[in-house]
Design brief:
This protein is α+β, with helices and mostly antiparallel strands. It has three domains: 65 residues, no CATH class; 66 residues, no CATH class; 119 residues, no CATH class. The chain contains ten helices and nine strands. A hairpin with a 2-residue loop joins β5 and β6. α1 packs across α2, α3 packs parallel to α5 and α4 runs antiparallel to α5. It starts with a strand and ends in a 15-residue tail after the last strand. The model has no long low-confidence stretch (mean pLDDT 92). The protein binds iron/sulfur cluster (SF4).
Length: 267
């Protein structure tokens, strides 16, 4: 079995959700504008590092979704999102703080860690390069609101960065956060992941896979006021037995669990 960060984090968020997605083959429909824009924007960034026209790449990718009935949030529209994306690319070029040498090798890099005779773990790291002339592993994020930076050191607790540090052995890590808001902004956040954190993550992967293999899929502990994780979960229709919610949010692809690690490319 091939595991990925997305699988482990979905299990930790809610084991029942993992079962819906990876055992029963239910997938969220590709209709979230923010997620699709994130994919298009990553392709534009790749074009930038390959000395191609990033704005043209973004337009080309984003145009694929122009006539699709996507779900936009915060009053966004197809045009507005494109405009913000182009502004972000211009700012990224002007600020010129990130360098990637040999971009064909150092963008979207696949790492594989053998866990046992049956299991391996796969991760796709966005880039390995330099931020402000210091070598580090880089993750791109697109979002409509700033990532929190307080308290100091918060980023070192980011589980995805810890995962990527574990699988690559690189301790210096950074997130470049492209914030789509009225006045666009780019956050350059960096931190150091310790050996202890990497060891703990390895233990967490082992323990989570042990629970998955022993078929422990109890639902999440439930309502926590004021943030009930079920209310924003795409699988709520399955848990409530509400067919109309299932049809609105999900599509079933039995057998897709064999390709589940591909999710890694999109989160
Ligand atoms: S609706 Fe709640 S219990 Fe059901 S899968 Fe989602 S998070 Fe888990």
């Amino acid at each position: 079995m091939i595991y990925s960060y997305t699988q482990i984090s979905q299990y930790l968020a809610c084991p029942r959700r993992y079962r819906h997605r990876y055992l029963d083959g239910w997938q969220q429909k590709d209709s979230q504008a923010a997620m699709l824009f994130g994919r298009a924007f990553e392709r534009a960034l790749a074009a930038y590092f390959l000395h191609q026209d990033p704005a043209a790449a973004l337009f080309q990718e984003w145009t694929l979704y122009r006539s699709q009935p996507l779900q936009y949030s915060h009053g966004d529209t197809w045009d507005r999102v494109l405009q913000q994306g182009i502004q972000l690319l211009e700012r990224f070029c002007q600020e010129d703080r990130v360098r990637i040498r040999q971009p064909r090798r150092n963008l979207q890099i696949k790492f594989v860690q053998k866990l046992s005779n049956q299991n391996e773990f796969v991760a796709y790291v966005d880039a390995i390069g330099r931020l402000d002339d210091r070598a580090c592993l880089l993750e791109w994020k697109t979002t409509s609101s700033r990532y929190p930076e307080e308290p100091d050191g918060l980023l070192a607790l980011d589980p995805q960065l810890i995962c990527y540090s574990w699988i690559t052995g690189v301790s210096e890590v950074a997130q470049v956060v492209f914030v789509r808001k009225r006045l666009v902004e780019i956050q350059y956040l960096r931190t150091t992941i310790t050996d202890e954190q990497r060891r703990e993550f390895a233990q967490q992967v082992d323990e989570t896979i042990r629970q998955i293999e022993s078929a422990q899929f109890l639902p999440h502990s439930g309502i926590r006021f004021p943030q009930n994780p079920c209310s924003s979960c795409p699988y709520i229709g399955l848990c409530l037995g509400r067919q109309e919610l299932v049809i609105a949010a999900l599509v079933r692809r039995p057998g897709a669990e064999q390709l589940a690690w591909l999710d890694e490319l999109y989160y």
